[in-house]
Amino acid sequence: MTTISRRRLLQAGAGVVPALALGARPAEAATITTGVVPSALAGFDSAMKTYIAERDIGCAQLAVARRGKILLARGYGVYGRSGTLRKVQPTSLFRVASLSKNITGAAIARLAQDGKLNLGASVASLLGLSTTADPRLAKVTVWRLLQHTGGWDRGASPDPLWADHAISASLDVPLPIDHADIMKWTTARKLDFDPGSKHVYSNYGYMLLGRIIEKVSGMSYESYVRQKLLTPLGITRPMLGGSLASEAASIEVPYTSKYTNKTVLNDSGTVVPYPYGGFNMPNQDANGGWLASAVDMVKWGFAFDAAGPVLNSTSISRVFAKPETGVNSGGSWYGFGWYVRNNNEGGLNTWHNGSMPGTFAFLARIQNGVSYCAIFNRREEEGTPDFDSIDPILGKAASGVKTWPTTDLAPRYF
Fold first, then answer.
1. What is residue 26's predicted lDDT score, i.e. its pLDDT?
2. Three-class SS string for the chain?
3. What is the model's pTM?
């Protein structure tokens, strides 16, 4: 999912049989818009329209905020639902993929804040995982899961969240597999490196964090996040997504990909559009399963600006703390679901992207209290322009703003 190299993104797409667009009309996305764009922020809108047109994107969103106020909220494109075309709204829901990780990281920080979880605790002890296959598993702590230093390397071994067919065959269990199957299969294998020795991005580590949240809180992962994190902030739309188009939320956009895969939802071997049954959304919950809008995500980002109803100052410091592996060669590090870097104001820039078949998302909190989120209903595939360029594109738009507006759009959307 997130941070996977572009080449491996393409490899993860499996087959190359074109999939149906499920009603999206990419050619119109850059010209059909909804929402509010103040004239002072027109550079953001112009940049998004160019980006969308160049990549033939059917549905997209952008939200921009500054110092706790939402200043721009935009939907781009149309999609088919129940025989009619609908415009993408600023409140339409998209799969946000690995933007889910900072939600999970905050949930763990909240459990620790409430005295219910020791971040130095052994994950094997918390979840009752056997260390027979690899005694080093006992050294995997909650901290190490959060900062991707647990010992799993998807470049050396299959990513368990994307190995449904292999797990089903190995365990001799029918599809769909569940979290317990994924954990059983992975626990029986050796780690790829010594826990704490290096940083390697791990979807599996965040899936385990979801199970820890459930074990410690006594609630479902989704219920805990809603009750302890989202509701106190007045954010009500986000939800966990389903695998099939028939399970889509009423305000959820469709997803497009030219790739297909054999379904992971049953043993039929049916070839399906990759975004719809080519992977199991419920299994992705804590590492990549949330649906949200761009305005939801920028408002969520406000929770990390200062102590508030969700996180206190100690928890926020933990979320952005440097891992034991230190700062990477580029000067950044990984916190609790955020990439982090010192900025030129003495503060921190934090960001993350999300990517799965049919989805690309980007969320950043930068200097001057500016934040923005862009979400799209397709990701980079073979033959498409670079999608990661959204980062410098939005950064350039932010640096070009002469005078920031002050009207808060939040009352329109919350």
1. 61
2. CCCCCHHHHHHCCCCCCCCCCCCCCHHHCCCCEEEECCHHHHHHHHHHHHHHHHHCCCEEEEEEEECCEEEEEEEEEEEEECCEEEECCCCCEEECHHHHHHHHHHHHHHHHHCCCCCCCCEHHHHHCCCCCCCHHHHHCEHHHHHCCCCCCCCCCCCCHHHCHHHHHHHHCCCCCCCHHHHHHHHHCCCCCCCCCCCCCCCHHHHHHHHHHHHHHHCCCHHHHHHHHHHHHHCCCCCEECCCCHHHCCCCECCCCCCCEEECCCCCCCCEEECCCCCCCCHHHHHHHCEEECHHHHHHHHHHHCCCCCCCCHHHHHHHCCCCCCCCCCCCEEECCCCEEEECCCCCEEEEEEEEECCEEEEEEECHHHEEEEEEECCCCCCCCCCCCCHHHHHHHHHHCCCCCCCCCCHHHHC
3. 0.93
